[in-house]
Amino acid sequence: MNIKEFKQYIKNKNVAVVGVGISNLPLIWFLLSCGAKVTACDKKADLGDIANELAEKGVNLKCGEDYLEDLNFEIIFKTPGMRPDMPQLETARKGGCVVTSEMELFFELCPCKIFAVTGSDGKTTTTTLIYNILNEAGYTCHLGGNIGRPLIGDIEKIKPGDMAVLELSSFQLFSMKHSANIAVITNLSPNHLDWHKDMEEYAQAKKNIFLYQNENDRLVVNYDNEITQGIYKDKKGEGIYFSSNNDIPQGVKIQNNKIIMCENGNITEIMDISDIKLPGTHNIENYMAAAAAVWGYAKPEHIENVAKTFGGVEHRIEFVREINNIKFYNDSIASSPTRTAAALNSFNQKLILIAGGYDKKIPFDSMGKLVNEKVKELVLIGKTAEKIRKAVEDAGDSTRITVCDTFQSAVQTAYSLAKDGDIVILSPACASFDLFDNFEQRGNLFKELVMNIKA
Q: Do residues 99 and 89 touch, judged by C-beta distance below 8 A?
């Protein structure tokens, strides 16, 4: 369906947008511009100033605890964090309602090639790298999905020769019936098991990023991750592996400290690993995934130019400040044990680690041994503090552990424990929702507290 056809289809239809958040406001404005009759539904009884703006533009409001009751609409656009099998949505479907989402609509209407990235770790950095490399190669690019701003509001500005680059979560992919032209799965490990029924459902949601591809499309997966290696066999079109640990015959790999592409016996050097400005093996893998995604669309020199200049994405092993020869890093994005492991492996010394937060029902057993090897002082906060403490203590006793009541006291404790030459890093291994609205808010407070430490 193109935009003209969609406008004819949606005009005068009764449409509900469930969840008045960042991702759905541009959707509401777009639907209004197409002539739809829009009702905004939200659990919050008071939406503040946005309620007045919505009302002024003719949007009906259905707010409060009963916002999901009696959803008698022709089309419902649900917010990403809402499971599509909720009883209220199932009832609406049985009544003839179409249940969809902003991202599903974008995929249906987008006129240009779509590059999309998902995975448990490394999504945002890899997505940003692809976007920067394609920009370096001269394309007009649009960055969105789980990063940047929702692109549905820009859909009429996107041209067929442009490139859309998206980061997609399992929530956004869960009910997708469209796939990206170039799909990247960085890795898969247990995550969001407080939302998904089990690991199988989580992995299946991720697979929607490529399951609806055709023979002209591309799937990029991590050979070194057992789950993604197994997914490779289900590809519909071209497949490209990347591997930092194995000598794969085809795909992107490392040889003599260089990232290279192997194609049908031909080797093309992409860049030297030393060109990468970002620390950590995981960032080398992010570049490898990005290189595989843009292969044929950008040249090695475009990838190399980005590597030499790109300083990283905020809240991802972000250098904050050095105080009395003590360095502070903000890795608030680390909402799983595997992310924290990547951060710990990015440094060649033992660290002072601040960890803990909201409980997503994922195990911390894998952290124990690595924390004892890589961490000299562990400062714990949040609902998962005791779970992490147990995992570390069960694996050994070389790391000293301190549990703090507040985030502020955790930062101050970490600083007080630090000695000359130490590194303090916030890399929680957990989501932020027990104390914060999101990981950005957590990271920003960490940076504010560090900047306020008196030298």
A: yes
Burial-class residue 454 by CB neighbours within 10 Å (0-12, 13-18, 19+). exposed
**Which superfamily does CATH assign the domain made up of 110-309 to?**
Mur-like, catalytic domain (3.40.1190.10)
Percent of the chain whose predicted confidence (pLDDT) is above 90: 81
Please report, for the chain, the start and end positions of each structural domain, with discontinuous segments joined by +: 10-100, 110-309, 318-451
- Going by C-alpha positions, the residue among 181, 185, 270, 263 that lies closest to residue 224 is 185
Which residue matches tokens 């306020």? 452
For strands 375-380 and 351-355, give the pairing.
Answer: parallel
- Facing residues of 328 across strands? 321, 424
- The CATH code of domain 318-451 reads 3.90.190.20
What SS3 class is residue 115?
Answer: strand
Tokens describing residue 122: 């490394």
Tokens of 156: 């009429």
Helix, strand or coil for residue 182? strand
362, 366, 367, 368 alpha-carbon torsion, rounded to 10°: 120
pLDDT of the residue at 45: 85
Class of domain 10-100: alpha beta
Closest to 352 measured CA to CA, from 402, 392, 312 = 402
N-to-C CA span, the chain: 60
Residues whose CB falls within 8 Å of the CB of residue 5, separated by 6 or more in sequence, listed in order: none
Tokens of 214: 């055709």
d(CA 354, CA 423): 11
How are beta strands 400-403 and 37-42 bridged, if at all?
A: unpaired
Size of the chain, expressed as the number of residues it contains: 455
> What does the pLDDT read at residue 278?
85
Q: Is 34 in contact with 11 (CB distance < 8 Å)?
A: yes
Per-position b or e across 406-434, b if 16+ CB within 10 A of its CB: ebeebbebbbebbeeebbbbbbbbbbbbe
Contacts of residue 56, defined as CB under 8 A and 6 or more positions apart, other chains included, come to none
Token pair listed for 256:
């003599």
Q: What's phi and psi for 3, nearest 5 deg?
A: -65, -40
Q: How confident is the model over 361-415, as pLDDT tens digits?
A: 889 998 999 999 999 999 999 999 999 999 999 998 779 999 999 999 999 999 9
What does the block give as tokens for 98? 């179409």
Please, what is the Cα angle at 209 between 207 and 212, to 5 degrees? Answer: 90
The C-alpha atoms of residue 220 and residue 254 are separated, in whole angstroms, by 16
Distances from the Cα of 247 to the Cαs of 223, 243, 251, 257, 286, in angstroms?
10, 8, 10, 13, 18
Fold identical between 10-100 and 318-451? no
Query: pLDDT tens digits for 106-128?
Result: 999 999 999 999 998 889 999 99
